Amino acid sequence: MLERLNQAMEHVERHLDQPVDVAELARIAGTSEYHLRRMFSALAGLPLSEYVRRRRLTPAGAEVLAARETLLEIAVRYGYGSGEAFARAFRAMHGVGPGEARRTGAALSSQPRMAFRLIVEGSTTMRHRIKEKPAFTVVGPKARVPLVHLGPNQAITDFVRGIDPGTLKRLEELSDQEPQGIVAVCDDLDPSRAEATELDYYHGVITNAAAPEGASALSVPAGTWAVFTASGAAPQAVQELWRDVYTQWFPSNPYRGRPGPEIARIRLSADGTEADAELWLPVEEERADRP
User: Fold this and answer.
1) Which 8-state DSSP code applies to residue 166?
2) In this structure, are strands 255-257 and 216-220 parallel, antiparallel, or unpaired?
């Protein structure tokens, strides 16, 4: 997987002055667009679209300073339809507009070219299982919240604190399958997985029962799930489990992520400092005949 991902990165390098088709990158990487975006974001720490934008603006910045072409010529060559759009993107990355950069010879930022390597630690074993699961429903309160990669998500914390304990007790009685009890479910995430983009967060149960009045319901079709477990300090253990799944497990196993909700069953210690976590991710087998 990583070898083919690096081939996709080489394709980006050869087409910095042309439109980059994510579908073509996925074909080169031998996976789906969905999994490619998710995998890249986890490995690189930034969305694929942001990486491509920053890589384009790196040589564009050098050409602005070289002053061999007009700013508009540079803008058009790197895919910007107007000088204004180019100036906005340029300033967002470099902290200065292209005209000012050319006049003053300002120091500009640079996005290094990325390549991926698998580092085998060998010191721990990731606990996981693969489970075929029939269709089910997520039932519980729902909120639209921002995505937070590291540290507590205050929006989720505030939302959960506002749920009546009696509501949670009644919901828990509807739990009739794995993962049992109250779970955290994330759905409808932005494909970029960028920090602060929004997602649907459900705090409820997995069930085949009808949703009670006032509760939201998310229907999930039958499919394959990879189930991972971890224990440790909260919330680091949970967030590190997400990271390790994409940086260690997926590159080493014949599966890829597929669209669907991501489910976490988290049980905290009495003082809230330790967590036992179970993470359910929708997956499908990675086959050579399927991009």
Assistant:
1) H
2) unpaired
